[in-house]
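RECORD TYPE: inverse folding
INPUT: structure tokens
STRUCTURE:
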């Protein structure tokens, strides 16, 4: 659940993004949050700038920054301080260099995990009755170099070894939020390990895609206060705002959690699978379908960070929690590797349990390190209908599709993501699933703002 703090005096002041180059402590608006509220970014560099000028003044033996030599003051204010603020001049690909603010935190740490990551995050048992379950998003971080590194080295394949080494560098880079100071659409860019201090991003830069809860069907917001529980459709933005205002007016505040129907998530998964058809027809495999690489954007879901592995070749990397067995052990891939990941996502959404023989496989992860990966030689998936009114035919139909998708033997799986999408849509029509999955709404604090149309609410995240 996302905590709603009781209302405080005064609204959060918002300034133009152009001030990011000058003011050390401010709040700017940059996008729309998944629940439809304005999305704000709080930037605070006052502590770092104070330390910088104290150190420079101490070096030059002066008490105040105004006493510094003119050239030193100009260099510190216009170059060093600007770099510390995270403002850089970048070529964004439109034949014009522009000043851009680069966030200190990664996009994931700043804006929260993707909606699918939050929906599928496992929960750990509470240590006591008074403690709420803690969310873990570790699955999405489980990216490492696969055993193809060892295979390439043993065979003396220099081109493949180089590809593996580049994959290690790419996976150690982190994506940051980029805000053009002159206004315009926010972007994201990767920052390598060796550029983390000044956060200098490298091309290509891509637009920041905004997720929408309304893309998942009839999502509702469940708002808890000291009074009665309130449930509001997310599509009713006005009603949601009024309910959040009431929560903020409660002496103890409140909490909001979103309830997402399983059928809506699976329908979106079918759209994701269908969108892979062109990639598969070009004889390439995405090879990195995981909750962290899926965005539920308005209109249609978006997938990104495709590894674009040519069919018949192994992959240099794998997200172990979602990768097909043949990808982890370094075998050549085909579209059925993506089908495996889609099937695993569908299995988690529906609450199915894969079963079969479990083995262990040691894989190198770069830098002289390795790790042991658990491989399930999956024979099928069990979907429990105990205590429900679901018929046996419903259970058999879902177990058949999911079991074939995540089968260890790839020949049992649907031949392509497009074939999987067709089967999934047919099953959603014949045997629609019921129930909802909770989504905590980890995309910022609910705060009050004041604008030209009066006071309202927004989501605030801090960099």
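DESIGNED SEQUENCE:
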């Amino acid at each position: 659940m996302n905590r709603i703090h009781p209302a405080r005096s005064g609204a959060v002041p918002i300034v133009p993004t152009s001030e990011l180059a000058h003011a050390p402590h401010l709040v700017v608006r940059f996008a729309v949050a998944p629940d439809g509220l304005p999305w704000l970014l709080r930037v605070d560099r006052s502590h770092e700038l104070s330390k910088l000028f104290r150190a420079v003044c101490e070096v030059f033996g002066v008490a105040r920054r105004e006493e510094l030599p003119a050239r030193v003051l100009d260099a510190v204010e216009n170059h060093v301080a600007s770099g510390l603020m995270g403002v850089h001049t970048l070529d964004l690909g439109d034949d014009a260099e522009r000043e851009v603010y680069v966030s200190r935190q990664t996009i994931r740490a700043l804006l929260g995990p993707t909606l699918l990551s939050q929906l599928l995050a496992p929960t750990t048992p509470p240590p006591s009755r008074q403690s709420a379950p803690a969310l873990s998003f570790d699955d999405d971080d489980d990216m490492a170099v696969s055993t193809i590194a060892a295979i390439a080295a043993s065979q003396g394949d220099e081109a493949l070894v180089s590809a593996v080494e580049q994959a290690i560098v790419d996976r150690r880079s982190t994506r940051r939020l980029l805000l053009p100071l002159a206004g315009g659409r926010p972007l994201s860019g990767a920052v390598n390990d060796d550029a983390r201090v000044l956060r200098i991003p490298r091309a290509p830069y891509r637009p920041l895609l905004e997720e929408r809860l309304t893309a998942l069907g009839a999502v509702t917001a469940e708002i808890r206060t000291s009074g009665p529980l309130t449930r509001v459709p997310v599509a009713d933005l006005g009603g949601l705002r009024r309910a959040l205002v009431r929560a903020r007016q409660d002496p103890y505040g409140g909490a909001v959690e979103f309830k997402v129907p399983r059928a809506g998530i699976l329908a979106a998964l079918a759209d994701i699978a269908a969108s892979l058809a062109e990639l598969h027809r070009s004889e390439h495999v995405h090879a990195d379908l995981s909750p962290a690489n899926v965005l539920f954007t308005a209109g249609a879901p978006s997938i990104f960070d495709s590894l674009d592995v040519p069919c018949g070749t192994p992959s240099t990397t794998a997200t172990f929690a979602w990768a097909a067995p043949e990808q982890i052990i370094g075998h050549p891939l085909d579209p059925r590797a993506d089908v495996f990941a889609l099937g695993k996502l569908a299995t988690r959404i529906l609450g199915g349990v894969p079963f079969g023989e479990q083995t262990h496989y040691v894989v190198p992860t770069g830098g002289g390190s390795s790790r042991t990966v658990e491989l399930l030689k999956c024979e099928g998936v069990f979907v429990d209908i105990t205590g429900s009114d679901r018929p046996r035919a419903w259970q058999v139909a879902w177990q058949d599709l999911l079991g074939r998708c995540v089968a260890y033997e790839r020949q049992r799986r649907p031949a392509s993501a497009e074939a999987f999408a067709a089967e999934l849509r047919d099953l959603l029509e014949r045997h629609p699933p019921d129930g909802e999955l909770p989504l905590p709404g980890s995309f910022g604090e609910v705060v009050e703002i004041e604008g030209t149309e009066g006071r309202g609410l927004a989501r605030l995240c801090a960099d």
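NOTES: The chain has two domains: 2-112+173-208+442-462, 262-438.
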